[in-house]
Amino acid sequence: MLLLALMLYSTLACPEGREVREPLRIALTPVFLDDRVDFLEHWRAYLEKHLRQPVRFIQRKTYREVTWLLLRNEVGAAWICGFPYVVNDKRLSLLAVPLYHGKPFYRSYLITARDNASVNSWRDLEGKVFAFSDPDSNSGYLYPVYHLRRLGLDPATLFRKSFFAWAHRNVVEAVAEGLADAGAVDGYVWESLRKQNPELTGRTRVVSRSPEFGFPPFVVRRNLPDQEIEHLRSALFSMQHDPVGRSLLDKLDLDGFTRGNDALYGGIRQMAEEVGSP
């Protein structure tokens, strides 16, 4: 009887003999997706269909929280910034890199209010209030600090006040509302917001654009099974060739995903070695 009961349970729990798989947990920072619950539900459904495995998106407010989830094996994959990736590349592996305007690159933007005539270069920031996005953000902290130091300016004493807004959108809002004279943001986020919320970005202007850097990557923890890594990579790569996936990419303002390589993040690694973490 016990054997029969176990066989019956197995049939009910695993219809058609399929194995019930543990959910794949994928961590995300809010970036500008925090108010797009419907999008995340559709993306989750797409990945579940292609992976044949439950998927759970885990959102956190900061890059550091997301990185900790990976390093503590609480999630299998995450979409993070290149800065925490290069700092932790001995424990993380590159999974895929988004393609933006056909290339795996993005830029950091220095922005100010549209009508602020006093900020037209990095050197004009002396005595101003400045908004960084996140201490683990390349575009919102690492590059601005590195660039200011290269100009012979000390970020610790340059500003009258500086603060972390904890999201690129929050930086745009702080500058637009006059809470900061200027700020550093992810150029991809600013450009995407310009399409979604032109009234907001229209109250700001771009003062300067950085050189290109490797786009914030999808990474996995190194002890994730190889088969799971390849299945997830394949699901991301398939998006640009699938009508539903293509629609999701359009909402992200992305063209697709590529395998990428560590060399894309050489510039970020060099800056990280020089600047370090705050």
Features:
single chain; 278 residues; alpha/beta; D-Maltodextrin-Binding Protein, domain 2; 2 domains; six-stranded mixed beta sheet; five-stranded mixed beta sheet; 12 helices; 21% strand; disordered N terminus
Distance between the first and last residues' Cα: 64 Å
CATH architecture classification name of the largest domain: 3-Layer(aba) Sandwich
For the biggest β-sheet, the strand order reads 2-1-3-12-4-13
Structure summary, number of beta strands: 13
**Alpha-beta classification:** alpha/beta
- How much strand content do the residues show? 15-25%
Please bin the fraction of helical residues: 40-55%
> Multimeric state of these chains?
single chain
Provide the CATH topology of the largest domain. Answer: D-Maltodextrin-Binding Protein, domain 2
CATH superfamily of the largest domain: Periplasmic binding protein-like II
Backbone shape: globular
The domain count comes to 2
Structural Rg: 21 Å
Main sheet characteristics: 6 strands, mixed
Describe this structure as you would to a colleague.
With 278 residues, this protein is an alpha/beta fold. The protein folds into 2 domains: 22-104 and 214-275, 3-Layer(aba) Sandwich (D-Maltodextrin-Binding Protein, domain 2); 108-210, 3-Layer(aba) Sandwich (D-Maltodextrin-Binding Protein, domain 2), CATH 3.40.190. 41% of the residues lie in helices and 21% in strands. The protein has 12 helices and 13 strands. The protein has helices spanning 2-13, 37-51, 63-71, 82-87, 138-150, 155-158, 168-176, 187-196, 198-201, 226-238, 243-252, 266-275; strands at residues 24-28, 55-59, 77-79, 92-99, 105-106, 108-113, 129-132, 161-164, 182-186, 204-209, 213-214, 218-221, 256-258. The strands form 3 sheets. It has a 6-stranded mixed beta sheet with strand order 2-1-3-12-4-13, sandwiched between helices. Strands 8-7-9-6-10 form a 5-stranded mixed beta sheet. Strands 5-11 form a two-stranded antiparallel ribbon. Helix 2 links the parallel strand 1 and strand 2. The termini are far apart.
